[in-house]
Design the sequence.
């Protein structure tokens, strides 16, 4: 999370400004960072005695941005441990804050932290503040050692778990977690009349939802822009273009496109040629958005399709498809034969797997979390299928990518594909046992 | 093996290009770009004061509005807006005018294949016309992969639908520098070989994709020459259109 301490017109996020200088200093501290370090000379308003500080307003010529960021940066270059003597912890009036420790305690903690560390990230109490204020520098210092703050190496993805059948009322469902990113996919089937151009084919409608539970930036009402884009990209990936004979069909109407060798053969969704076919509604809900949304969504969609059990139906007397029910009476039983008793599961063709990488200077970080995604502006998503073909190389803007980078990302995706195939197989064999 | 194209072009041949600047007088910058029958009109308004809600106020913000030729704005338009926004953000110098918004409005006049690259080219020309500070220009091209694996440049809509897969690629424009060649190499490759944006549809092998990238780079070198010529034309409105075949 970035704390933007902006110019005077905009209020800093989540912090309130009050005219009282004493409280305004306290309120500018991010909520879970209890201590602050400032040098006495740089911040005379606070360092002076409390009675003169009460009504003193910040110097109007010096905007509030100066107080927090600049003071920390002027302390010492990050590589050398700051001289403990020059650090003064300025908590103007210790009795106003019930949880405040005394000055001596805090200074002891600072010096202990400084002595313990190798001089790289000095002092436990500065780490949190440093991470909030200078996220890029914080990350760069980790990347120099080829490691990330959560302990992963650069090419390692987060722990992935897959649970099939999470929604019992749906015909197929899956719950996927990559690290903290959680996606719930569910498929419902409905019978519909196929279109005239493709009487032997069913239809799939894919929708990606980002409810407000997933992220603080998503609010109810307007769908997040990311949701719309991910929805379209998922449908592009799962239902690939086939050969189109008719010119009238717009390439944008994904639903009507039939795919020849994609993951799903729409012809399997047909029931009665020209009269009835299946319409599968795939809904993916993002329950926790913590980076790499497309990866998790694609994995959950693939798992849901693998788990899908097409409901058994039969034709009733009027020629309509109804759900097949096993009833006791034998009078009407002879006419009611299940139309699709044999065909209950979809055969999946080449399954696509994806990996999102964040690029920063020379480093490639596989499977970034949302913090990493917000700091590093360049993201690449590579989708490959199980027959080692490139389904999508998606890089919207960002820093320039050279050929070596393309090959590195593809290599990382191949590695990830093997891991994901294993996870999918395990989830399946676990389910079949039941 | 040369694939016979319906309009008689060779696989490496682009359609006739046409670029006009300063066509809308109320906009701060405007340009129209056409490749064959595909034509896109772009207008730039900005910088305006203030940024949007979730944007960083310490940088300039770019807003893209994509208007299709017919119909309402749907998911495809939103995706194009997002791709264009990220592409333009990576070529603009965002720290020069912080806390401002620059709007780029793209109007599709006709869609005959390679629509997104055409729009990116038009937007880039419009940004230059408006005087927005840029690091370098962005040049976009569409490459498709035919069934047998050969690469075809700048397809029409019909060709796009019939090909196995296609890729929209955006590269920086090639620099015209006084220094000798080979002095500005990054990782052993010149600056204009870097990919700014890549969007692919359909399936292709990794080698075919790299072949597309190579062809795309060569074509973009030609396109950036054309762009430079057309933008260097004089400021007088009567002389702001240029053509190339």
Sequence:
């Amino acid at each position: 999370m970035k704390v933007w301490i902006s110019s005077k017109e905009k209020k800093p996020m989540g912090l309130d400004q009050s005219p009282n200088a004493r409280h305004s200093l306290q309120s500018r501290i991010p909520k879970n960072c209890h201590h602050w370090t400032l040098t006495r000379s740089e911040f005379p308003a606070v360092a002076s005695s409390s009675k003169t500080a009460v009504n003193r307003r910040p110097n109007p010529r010096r905007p509030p941005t100066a107080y927090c960021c600049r003071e920390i940066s002027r302390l010492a270059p990050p590589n050398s441990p700051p001289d403990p003597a020059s650090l003064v912890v300025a908590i103007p009036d210790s009795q106003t804050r019930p949880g405040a420790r005394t000055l001596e305690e805090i200074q002891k903690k600072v010096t202990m932290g400084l002595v313990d560390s190798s001089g790289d990230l000095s002092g436990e109490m500065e780490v949190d503040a440093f991470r909030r204020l200078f996220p890029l520098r914080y990350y760069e210092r980790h990347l120099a050692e080829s490691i990330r703050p959560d302990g992963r190496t650069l090419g390692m993805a987060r722990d992935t778990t897959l649970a099939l059948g999470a929604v019992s009322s749906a015909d197929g469902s899956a719950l996927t977690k990559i690290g903290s990113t959680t996606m719930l996919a569910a498929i419902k089937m409905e019978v519909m009349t196929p279109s005239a151009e493709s009487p032997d084919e069913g239809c799939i409608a894919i929708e990606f939802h980002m409810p407000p539970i997933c992220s603080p930036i998503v609010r109810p009402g307007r769908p997040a822009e990311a949701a719309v884009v991910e929805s379209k990209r998922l449908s592009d990936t799962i239902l690939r273009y086939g050969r189109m004979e008719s010119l009238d069909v717009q390439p944008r109407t994904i639903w009507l496109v039939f795919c020849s060798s994609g993951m799903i053969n729409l012809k399997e969704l047909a029931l009665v040629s020209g009269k009835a076919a299946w319409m599968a509604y795939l809904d993916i809900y993002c329950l926790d958005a913590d980076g790499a949304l497309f990866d998790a969504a694609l994995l959950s969609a693939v798992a849901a399709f693998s788990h899908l059990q097409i409901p058994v139906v039969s034709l009733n007397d009027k020629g309509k498809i109804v759900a097949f029910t096993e009833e006791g009476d034998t009078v009407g039983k002879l006419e009611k034969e299940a139309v699709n008793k044999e065909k209950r599961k979809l055969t999946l063709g080449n399954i696509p797997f994806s990996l999102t990488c964040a690029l920063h200077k020379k480093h490639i970080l596989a499977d970034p979390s949302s913090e990493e995604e917000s700091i590093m502006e360049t993201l690449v998503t590579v989708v490959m299928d199980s027959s080692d073909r490139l389904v999508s190389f998606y890089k919207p803007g960002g820093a320039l990518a050279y050929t070596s980078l393309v090959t590195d990302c593809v290599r990382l995706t191949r590695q990830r594909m093997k891991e994901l195939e294993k996870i999918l197989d395990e989830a399946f064999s676990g389910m079949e046992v039941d | 093996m040369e694939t016979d194209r319906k309009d008689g072009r060779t696989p490496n041949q682009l359609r006739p290009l046409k670029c006009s600047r300063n066509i809308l007088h109320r906009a701060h910058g405007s340009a129209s770009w056409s490749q064959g029958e595909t034509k896109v009109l772009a207008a730039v308004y900005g910088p305006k004061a203030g940024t949007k809600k979730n944007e960083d106020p310490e940088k300039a913000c770019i807003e893209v509005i994509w208007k299709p030729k017919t119909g309402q704005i749907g998911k495809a338009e939103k995706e194009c807006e997002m791709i264009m926004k990220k592409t333009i953000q990576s070529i603009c110098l965002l720290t020069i005018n912080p806390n401002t918004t620059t709007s780029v409005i793209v109007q599709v006049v006709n869609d005959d294949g390679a629509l997104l690259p055409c729009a990116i080219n038009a937007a880039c020309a419009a940004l230059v016309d408006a005087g927005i500070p840029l690091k370098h220009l962005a040049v976009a091209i569409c490459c498709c992969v035919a069934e047998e694996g050969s690469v075809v440049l700048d397809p029409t809509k019909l060709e796009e639908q019939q090909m196995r897969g296609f890729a929209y690629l955006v590269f920086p424009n090639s620099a015209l520098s006084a220094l000798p060649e080979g002095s500005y190499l990054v990782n052993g490759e010149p600056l204009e070989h870097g990919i700014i944006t890549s969007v692919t549809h359909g399936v292709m092998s990794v080698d075919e994709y790299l072949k597309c990238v190579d062809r795309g780079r060569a074509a973009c070198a030609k396109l950036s020459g054309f762009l430079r010529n057309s933008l260097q034309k004089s400021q007088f409105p009567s002389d702001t259109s240029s053509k190339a075949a």
